[in-house]
Amino acid sequence: MVNEQQKPTREQTKHAIVTGHYKYLLQALAIAMQHVHVWRLAETRDPFTAKEIYEFALQQDKEHPLEGHQFYMVSREGAIGISPGVEYLTKWMFIPMEPGREYDFYMQSMMEDLEAERVRQEAIDKAVEEGLAAERYAREHPVPPPPPMQQPAVQPQYAQPQPAMQYDDDEASVVIVSPQPQVQQQTPPVPPIPSAAPTPPPIPRKG
Quick one: CA dihedral 23, 27, 29, 33, positive or negative? Predict the structure, then answer.
């Protein structure tokens, strides 16, 4: 694609149209397409459609811009050439294809390619628009966060009694004895201690 710094100014474009000298191949192609849409490469006679020359011109203008007094030129029939600075030294690059079945075939092929490109671009634009609409809806209708998950209650863990080992002296073997559950013995209540009986008064003796 043409660099922003390489884009011609309005005055340069006007001068190119008046003189027929174009600094960019894309400019020359736009003028030539007013007369023809299929060309032949001047050196090999290979066919080139306007779409193919357009793709070539994008690369040519970016990677090999003209220098000094060079310019592209377009003939009245739509041929495209390059000149070192004077018109009579122009070297023709693309010449119009003669009318006929071959011309009609390449025109039809180019139109089908352009239609397929148009459909593809419309699909891309639609997908982009739908994506933007989805993002806009998500911003306007945010989804509330889910409630926090409750942690299950932790059951207390009790230490399990481990089996004890006893030694049998007679058989010189080890016997594993499973511990018996300990039964808590209930202590009977202690009866209250009676308070000491009051001491009776002394009995008087008879005379």
Answer: negative
Per-residue pLDDT tens digits of the chain, which is 207 residues long = 445 545 666 776 776 777 788 999 999 999 999 999 999 999 999 999 999 999 999 999 999 888 888 999 999 899 999 999 888 899 999 999 998 898 899 888 888 888 888 898 889 988 988 888 888 888 888 888 888 877 776 666 666 666 555 555 555 555 555 555 555 556 666 666 555 555 555 655 654
Rounded CA-CA distance 186/189 in Å is 9
Task: Note whether 53 and 94 are within 8 A (CB).
Answer: yes
Identity at 161, one-letter amino acid code: P
Whole-angstrom Cα distance, residue 81 to residue 62?
18
Give CA separation, 74 vs 56, 61, 71, 86, 131, in Å.
17, 16, 10, 13, 45
110 Cβ partners below 8 Å, 6+ apart?
A: 37, 38, 49, 50, 51
3-state secondary structure of 172: coil
Burial (CB count within 10 angstroms: exposed 0-12, middle 13-18, buried 19+), residue 135: exposed
